[in-house]
Structure formats: structure tokens, C-alpha cells
Design a protein that fits this description.
The chain has 109 residues and is of the alpha+beta class. 52% of the residues lie in helices and 14% in strands. It has one domain: Winged helix-like DNA-binding domain superfamily/Winged helix DNA-binding domain (Arc Repressor Mutant, subunit A). The longest helix is centred in the last third of the chain and has 18 residues. The radius of gyration is 16 Å and the shape is elongated.
Length: 109
């Protein structure tokens, strides 16, 4: 079976999870991405990426306690798995390798 590679948004979500560490759900993840990339990311896109990442085994999730301010609904909290950390490190190595020997304008040296 071929390895499934991470998309850009999936990689950003995993990096946001690494930065947040605990209590990560859609809104803080979206804010973390926006703060560090200066890109607004729709919350629906974040949750779609989280679902894909959970299917790939890169994140796990658990339901929190229901809260009155959410109409009795519970938040789903996410955390990165060991596989997710390895995927982030693999992506980092690949990108560094691609950047090596490029000149200031992106041309090959």
C-alpha cells in the first residue's frame, strides 16, 4: 500500500497541535494557524483535515464534558499521535532537502 502524504493544511493542523499541546479543538487550532501563517482557515476545513488525520492515525480524539454554553454539546479534543509526529518530521526532512542548494530566487545553485 502506498504511503499517504500530508497535504499542506494537514501539516499545518499537526503543527498547530504540537504548539497547543492540550485542549486542542477546532477553534484554537484555526487561530494558531492564522496567527503563524497570516492565513484565515475556515473552521470546517480544520475539522475536515482533523477527520482525515484521524483516519490516517496521525491524531486521536476524545469528547469532553457537555457544557451549557454549547447547548449541552461536548467539544471533541484532539491530540497528535506518535505517527503524526513522525509524519511531521518526515515532511520537515523532505522540505529541507528540497530547499537545499537553491539560490535566493529559488533557482538551482
Amino acid at each position: 500500500m502506498a504511503k499517504e502524504h500530508l497535504g499542506n493544511l494537514e501539516l499545518m493542523v499537526l503543527l498547530a497541535l504540537l504548539r497547543i499541546r492540550r485542549g486542542a479543538y477546532g477553534v484554537p487550532i484555526s487561530r494558531e494557524i492564522a496567527e503563524h501563517t497570516e492565513r484565515e482557515v475556515a473552521i470546517g476545513s480544520v475539522y475536515a483535515a482533523l477527520e482525515r488525520l484521524e483516519r490516517k492515525g496521525c491524531v486521536s480524539s476524545a469528547l469532553g464534558e457537555p457544557s451549557p454554553e454549547r447547548g449541552g454539546r461536548a467539544k471533541r479534543y484532539f491530540q497528535i499521535t506518535g505517527k503524526g509526529v513522525r509524519e511531521v518530521r518526515d515532511a520537515q526532512r523532505m522540505l529541507i532537502s528540497l530547499w537545499q542548494n537553491l539560490g535566493p530566487q529559488g533557482e538551482s545553485a
